[in-house]
Amino acid sequence: MSGTPRAGIIPVTPFQQNCTLIWSDETKVGAVVDPGGDLDRIEAAIQAQGLTIEKILLTHGHIDHAGGADELRQRLGVPIEGPHEADRYLLDSLPETGANYGLDGARAVTPDRWLVEGDAVTVGDLTFDILHAPGHSPGSVVFVSRDARFALVGDVVFKGSVGRTDLPGGNHDQLIRAIKEKVLPLGDDVAFIPGHGPTSTLGEERLSNPFLQD
């Protein structure tokens, strides 16, 4: 029996990216998802919840999601898992990208574990299945807790929108196909935390998201 997941959202960077703490209510063992920056704020939230952080998870390689990952790995002494290796070029170029956006201190990062479709990631007594959902970036992944009917989707899909595909490596048709063929079939009852903005459910997006209507 897996634990009961809890989540807390910490908006970070000028992009107001949803860095997410995910943890087990039973064990207080958790992970930091997409630490794009503002690491002092993230660490304060970890302490406020009394969590033991076991790993850092990355949904994809963009600066607002991964810019603080290498430094946080060093601070916490934990491994990084994700995204898919197709985003390696994004992670390698984080210092240059950060300089372009005026985000100081971004460091290139190589995960301790690249993820592929079908992998499982454990966080304490929680288990997440991995979907590879390219289109916003080539290596975007989605973390799915099937037991808890909950997903961390990064910038694949948002409440009322989908990830932008005008950045290098983006592909709109590929993104919509990944959402319709992989993400929506998880079930209408699955709630998700996106990389920006409010949470939603897959059912709500299937019915009302203008990008997903045929």
Automatic annotation (TrEMBL):
<dbReference type="InterPro" id="IPR036866">
    <property type="entry name" value="RibonucZ/Hydroxyglut_hydro"/>
</dbReference>
<dbReference type="Pfam" id="PF00753">
    <property type="entry name" value="Lactamase_B"/>
</dbReference>
<protein>
    <submittedName>
        <fullName>Glyoxylase, beta-lactamase superfamily II</fullName>
    </submittedName>
</protein>
<keyword id="KW-0862">Zinc</keyword>
<feature type="domain" description="Metallo-beta-lactamase">
    <location>
        <begin position="16"/>
        <end position="196"/>
    </location>
</feature>
<feature type="region of interest" description="Disordered">
    <location>
        <begin position="195"/>
        <end position="214"/>
    </location>
</feature>
<dbReference type="GO" id="GO:0016787">
    <property type="term" value="F:hydrolase activity"/>
</dbReference>
<keyword id="KW-0479">Metal-binding</keyword>
<keyword id="KW-0378">Hydrolase</keyword>
<dbReference type="GO" id="GO:0046872">
    <property type="term" value="F:metal ion binding"/>
</dbReference>
<dbReference type="InterPro" id="IPR051453">
    <property type="entry name" value="MBL_Glyoxalase_II"/>
</dbReference>
<dbReference type="InterPro" id="IPR001279">
    <property type="entry name" value="Metallo-B-lactamas"/>
</dbReference>
